[in-house]
Specification:
Elements (H helix, E strand, L loop, with lengths): L3 E3 L13 E4 L4 E6 L10 E7 L3 E3 L5 E4 L6 E7 L4 E3 L4 E2 L4 E8 L14 E6 L2 E4 L13 E3 L5 E2 L9 E5 L8 E2 L3 E2 L5 E9 L2 E2 L6 E5 L11 E3 L25 E4 L7 E3 L2 E4 L1 E4 L6 E3 L5 E4 L3
């Protein structure tokens, strides 16, 4: 008694190239008599050929008659004579003119007394990508910021669509469309052009290096010394606000490893609170001045 089993082969669009134009696609049937043991199916011509940029996703389709079952991979033959055996999903890079099913498991009858098997596989369709934008142009723009500062994205230009910045080269997950971003740690961002649910390939990425990520929260009008980078009062990254205090700002100096050092300039603040164990080192001989403006 013969059994019939069909595992459908599905071809549809990839996440990045989410616009898919139906393609009539080739329909190929290959039948194998008595497929016992490991073997290769001969290469079969595809007509019409599968054009480049065709999206192939899903499982291999196998038609089974009899008690034998195999699995396999597609070996694609390109118009230039090269081949590729790839797992799905797969977006073709070249025109495909032929295909071969290569088995990956042995095939032997479950019941020795059963009738010989006939196996058949079929490519039932394909689709081609809709025209997506090209990758954004522009390069450079890496920079360093303090933990509480914003990083300004560099210039990247889209010939069409809008610019999106993703945190991975695959263009998935959270994205940013604004001019700035505030990462809590060093982060690389990848630019894409987006139009009508379709993303371009990634452009040249940019890295925002976070020098100090302070755990101290900024309060209105108050600057707290962190000494995150070194002892330099005039280094913005040594303050929880990512900026050097001005004459209108109140300052708190807690007991930290790097005590502030004022040398070669005037340090301004409205008032200053030096907590127990903390020190402010003023080197007046080198032009260091602390100017407290509170009456």
């Amino acid at each position: 008694m013969r059994s019939l089993f069909f595992l459908s082969f599905i071809i549809y669009s990839h996440q990045i190239f989410s616009q898919c134009i139906p393609y009539p696609g080739p329909q190929i049937d290959v039948k194998i008599e008595d497929p016992v043991g490991s073997f290769n199916v001969e290469t079969r011509t595809i007509n019409p050929t599968i054009p480049a940029n065709t999206i192939i996703m899903g499982t291999i389709g196998i038609l089974q008659e009899g008690p034998c079952f195999i699995t396999g991979n597609f070996l694609w033959v390109f118009a230039d004579g090269t081949t590729a055996t790839v797992s799905l999903p797969y977006t073709t890079t070249k025109e495909i003119v032929a295909v071969r099913l290569t088995t990956t498991t042995n095939c032997s009858p479950i019941d020795p007394d059963a009738e010989p098997s006939e196996l058949e596989f079929r490519i039932i369709g394909a689709c081609t990508m809709a025209a997506c934008p090209i990758a954004p142009t522009g390069s450079g723009g890496n920079g360093s910021i303090c933990g509480s500062q914003s990083f300004t994205f560099p210039s990247r230009n889209c010939s069409e669509g809008t610019l999106r910045w993703y945190q991975n080269s695959g263009g998935t997950g959270t994205f940013h469309t604004g001019a700035t971003v505030s990462p809590s740690s060093t982060q690389t961002y990848y630019p894409f052009c987006y139009t009508a649910s379709c993303l371009s390939p990634a452009g040249t990425p940019v890295t925002a290096t976070v020098i100090c990520s302070s755990s101290l929260a900024a309060s209105s009008g108050t600057y707290t010394w962190t000494g995150c980078t070194d002892t330099d009062w005039f280094d913005p990254c040594n303050w929880n606000t990512g900026a050097v205090p001005t004459a209108a700002k109140s300052v708190i100096i807690p007991n930290v490893t790097n005590d502030p050092l004022i040398t070669g300039g005037t340090a301004n603040c409205f008032e200053i609170t030096i907590q127990t164990g903390a020190t402010v080192n003023l080197v007046s001989s080198s032009g260091g001045v602390l100017n407290v403006t509170k009456p």
